[in-house]
Write a structure and sequence with these properties.
Length: about 140
C-alpha cells in the first residue's frame, strides 16, 4: 500500500471469506512512527461490482496499538481490479479514506497478491487464534 500524502509504503494485508455467496474479511495495516511499529486490524466489507471491480470498505476497527485514540469515522475504500497472471492472483487499484471534521481524505494505491502458505500471514494467524474462521490471505 502506498500513501500519496505521506509518500510512504505501508505493509497491508487482507483476508477474505466467502460464505453463502457473500464476501467479508479483515485488513491489517502496519506503519512506523519514530521507529515504533503500529498496527490496526479492521473488519471489512467486500463486494464485486458488475464491472468486475472488487470493492473493499472498512467496517470497524477491531484491534490496534495506536499511540492515540483513533477517530471512529476514518474509513478506507479500495476499488481494486482482480487479475490472474499465471499462478498469481492480484488485487490492484486506488484507495481513499473518508474525509472527516478532523482529517482530510488520504489517497494512495494498493497492490496485493494471494500468498501461500498461510503461515506467512500475521493477520491469518491472529484470526485463527481469536476468531477461528477459514480465510484466504493476500498481502
Amino acid at each position: 500500500m502506498f500513501n500519496d500524502s505521506t509518500r510512504q509504503s505501508l505493509q497491508y494485508e487482507i483476508v477474505i471469506n466467502k460464505d453463502k455467496g457473500k464476501y467479508s474479511g479483515f485488513s491489517h495495516t502496519w506503519f512506523l512512527i519514530n521507529e515504533k511499529k503500529y498496527y490496526g486490524i479492521k473488519k471489512i466489507k467486500v463486494h464485486v461490482a458488475n464491472d468486475g471491480k472488487v470493492i473493499i470498505q472498512d467496517q470497524a476497527l477491531i484491534e490496534n496499538n495506536y499511540p492515540i485514540l483513533p477517530n471512529k469515522n476514518v474509513l478506507q475504500l479500495n476499488v481494486l481490479d482482480l487479475a490472474i497472471r499465471g499462478d498469481e492472483t492480484i488485487l490492484d487499484g486506488p484507495f481513499v479514506t473518508k474525509r472527516t471534521k478532523d482529517y482530510n481524505e488520504l489517497t494512495g494505491h494498493i497492490n496485493v497478491k494471494r500468498i501461500n502458505p498461510s503461515n506467512e500471514s500475521d493477520l491469518l494467524q491472529y484470526l485463527q487464534k481469536n476468531i477461528g474462521n477459514n480465510f484466504t490471505a493476500v498481502k
